[in-house]
């Protein structure tokens, strides 16, 4: 969804609401009244404007985000029990959480935790039953090995401390018209003289994961990396990533290889004993792929880890 086709002041205020929701998913303060107050709208007008811009009602959005956060915790936070996760994302009972989760993902939380592709163990090959289950498991580990081989051949990976980074960003939802969002942020950056700086880079920050969120609902920040926060207006907003430890993988890839690269990097993370931190992954582009002789992007992928 191309948000910059909407009223820019409305987008600015809805962005405030989205940030507030992200920060308070584990609390009981996300009523229509409280969120609309953050966005400086009356509840009546906010309900209509939020749905127009985001594509779903406030209650539907909050409910989905809570279940998706639970799914992410089931993948990355193995130390938490399902009951603890249910309470963390705002459910008062385990049974209510299980019903809602199963309705959303068609799997119970325990089934999701056990079947999700990021969960794997080489011991499982020895322990599995013979027959079809063994064949499926063998095929699954072959796929993991293919991803790891892909990473080894196509990426330079480091784990390093990254300082807080600052971006001027444009909110985009879904996978359609991403090129127009980049054109919009580039045009804005040129008008501010930012593209004349040799250190300026385009970037994309992911607020959702394609593994647990429908592609047409994934929220991204299409961004320009700046040395420090800059003066923004309208639908352009400042965004900062947290300082900390990151897995950084540099790839030289075609657009078709982005998904494989991200999947492989997350498998590498698990295979090397790292766990994802709570902040957002992001990409920083080091070239204009249109100028590459093979049409490839040179891009750094960042996964925050603990």
UniProtKB/TrEMBL annotation:
What the entry lists under InterPro entries is as follows:
AraC_E-bd, GyrI-like, Homeodomain-like_sf, HTH_AraC, HTH_AraC-typ_CS, Reg_factor_effector_dom_sf, SmbC-like, Tscrpt_reg_AraC-type_HTH
Location of the HTH araC/xylS-type domain? 15-115
Where does the source fall among the domains of life? Answer: Bacteria
Q: Return the Pfam families for the record.
A: GyrI-like, HTH_18
Q: Does the keyword Transcription apply?
A: yes
Key words, A-Z: DNA-binding, Transcription, Transcription regulation
Asked if the record carries the keyword Acyltransferase, the reply is no
Its signal peptide is none
* MF GO annotations: DNA-binding transcription factor activity; sequence-specific DNA binding
Q: What is this protein called?
A: AraC family transcriptional regulator
């Amino acid at each position: 969804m191309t948000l910059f086709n909407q009223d820019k002041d409305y987008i600015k205020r809805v962005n405030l609401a989205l940030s507030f929701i992200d920060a308070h998913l584990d609390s009981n303060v996300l009523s229509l009244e409280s969120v609309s107050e953050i966005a400086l709208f009356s509840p009546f007008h906010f309900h209509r404007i939020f749905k127009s811009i985001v594509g779903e009602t406030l209650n539907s959005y909050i409910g989905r985000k809570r279940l998706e956060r639970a799914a992410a915790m089931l993948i990355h936070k193995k130390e938490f029990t399902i009951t603890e996760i249910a309470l963390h994302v705002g459910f008062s009972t385990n049974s209510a959480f299980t019903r809602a989760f199963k309705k959303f993902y068609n799997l119970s939380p325990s089934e999701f935790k056990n079947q999700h592709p990021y969960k794997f163990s080489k011991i499982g090959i020895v322990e599995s039953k013979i027959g079809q289950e063994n064949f499926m498991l063998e095929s699954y580990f072959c796929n993991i090995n293919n991803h790891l081989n892909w990473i080894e051949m196509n990426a330079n990976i480091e784990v390093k401390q990254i300082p807080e980074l600052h971006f001027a960003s444009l909110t985009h939802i879904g996978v359609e018209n991403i090129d127009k969002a980049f054109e919009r942020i580039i045009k804005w950056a040129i008008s501010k003289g930012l593209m004349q700086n040799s250190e300026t880079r385009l970037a994309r920050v992911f607020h959702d994961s394609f593994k647990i969120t429908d592609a047409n609902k994934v929220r991204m920040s299409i961004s320009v990396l700046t040395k420090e926060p800059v003066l923004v207006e309208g639908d352009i907003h400042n965004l900062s990533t947290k300082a900390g430890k990151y897995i950084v993988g540099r790839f030289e890839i075609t657009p078709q290889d982005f998904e494989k690269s991200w999947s492989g990097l997350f498998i590498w993370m698990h295979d090397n004993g790292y766990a994802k931190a709570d902040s957002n992954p992001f990409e920083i582009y080091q070239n204009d792929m249109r100028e590459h002789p093979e049409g490839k992007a040179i891009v750094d992928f960042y996964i925050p880890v603990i």
